[in-house]
Design brief:
Structural class: alpha/beta
CATH topology of the largest domain: Rossmann fold
Shape: globular
Helix content: 25-40%
Radius of gyration: 22 Å
CATH architecture of the largest domain: 3-Layer(aba) Sandwich
Distance between the termini: 61 Å
Number of strands: 7
Largest sheet: 7 strands, mixed
Length: 352
């Protein structure tokens, strides 16, 4: 009897739609792109003939060289984003992390994604670029950032049509001989708002349940705007309540609070004072949901003149770390000035 590969739905594995069992064989990259096994293998399977035996890696051809094996794991291709089935297929042959950004529209999610890609392409990085199944989609993001930096109008972000499940970017990283796949889901901001407002059930977005890393994003641009800052924090707390009511994150997943556009916050005294007076309270709310939750300030789109670290390296280290691993705190303790108002120097505690 032909053995069928087992399906997994745990952390790091994205649920696929049910379908007929596919005979196991070593398919080449060209065969994967063409959508399935060659006709002879299909005919043999229908007639009951045993398919070719799979070697140690089902994504490799027979007796591949090391270079061919590396190419099979991280092919450089793809103008389309991945869907959950593509992601499960990729993770079946190589370790990875499923990352989900949860934030409002224009909160910096796409800039974060592009900056993570661009950072690994620079020389001298401790973790290097090792390929992408969505390379052209990443290049389109990088091109848009370059146009925006030059003052030209950038093209629209990758459109997400109603019912379209292609929302996942793939970035393979290498640290010596070790490889890690980041699968980054850039969910539409409209979904975040619908989740926070309890208009959309979390069960309707399987990626949230399958995530290894859940990232709650606070938009530093909204913090800069007195008319929007309070509602931005309220929606973040509402989403925390939704996650808690659905018993998320699950034990195999990790949670982080990320403040984007930190350069906009840091350069404005009024915005900085507003955030510092509320930062620890919100971080405590997140850690009530998960005690080990991280807190990172990121300035992914900051100009080169920004004097502080942009936080992208700290975020990347947390994303690739094994869930439960101890990492250095990405945010230094606040050194409160002696003349700070008393209400700011007092530790924030939740009242009951």
């Amino acid at each position: 009897m032909t053995e069928e590969p087992q399906q997994g739905t745990g952390p790091g594995q994205v649920e696929e739609a049910a379908g007929p069992a596919v005979p196991r064989y070593s398919e080449t990259r060209d065969e994967r792109l063409q959508g399935g096994p060659p006709p002879q293998v299909q005919a043999d399977a229908q007639q009951g003939a045993a398919p070719p035996q799979v070697e140690a890696n089902a994504w490799q051809d027979a007796a591949p060289s090391q270079a061919e094996a590396d190419e099979a794991v991280t092919p450089l291709l793809g103008s389309e984003l991945l869907n959950p089935a593509d992601a499960s297929r990729l993770l079946s042959g190589s370790p990875g992390r499923v990352v989900v950004w949860l934030g409002e529209r224009d909160s910096g999610k796409t800039t974060l994604t592009a900056r993570l890609y661009e950072r690994q392409r620079l020389p001298g990085q401790d973790v290097g670029f090792a390929g992408s199944w969505t390379l052209l989609a990443f290049e389109a993001l990088a091109y848009g950032r370059r146009l925006a930096a030059s003052g030209a109008q950038s093209p629209a972000d990758h459109p997400t049509r109603e019912g379209d499940e292609r929302q996942i970017y793939h970035l393979a990283l290498a640290d010596g001989a070790d490889r890690m796949n980041l699968l980054i889901a850039d969910l539409p901001g409209e979904q975040f708002r619908a989740l926070a407002d309890n208009q959309l059930p979390l069960s309707s977005i399987p990626l949230v349940r399958r995530a290894d890393k859940l990232v709650l994003i606070v938009d530093g641009g909204c913090l800069r705007d007195p008319a929007r800052r309070a509602s931005a924090l309220t929606r973040t707390r509402q989403l925390l309540e939704r996650l808690a009511s659905d018993s998320l994150p699950h034990p195999g997943s990790e949670l982080a609070l990320v403040v984007t556009k930190w350069d906009l916050v840091a350069e404005d005294p009024d915005t900085l004072a507003y955030w510092l007076a509320r930062e620890h309270q919100l971080a405590d709310d997140v850690r009530e949901l998960q005690a080990s939750a991280e807190h990172v300030r990121v300035a992914a789109g900051a100009p080169a003149s920004f004097p502080q670290d942009d936080g992208v390296g700290a975020l990347r280290s947390w994303l690739v770390a094994t869930p439960g691993a101890v990492s250095d705190p990405p945010v230094d303790p606040v050194d409160w000035p002696d003349d700070a108002p008393e209400r700011m120097r007092m530790p924030w505690r939740r009242t009951t």
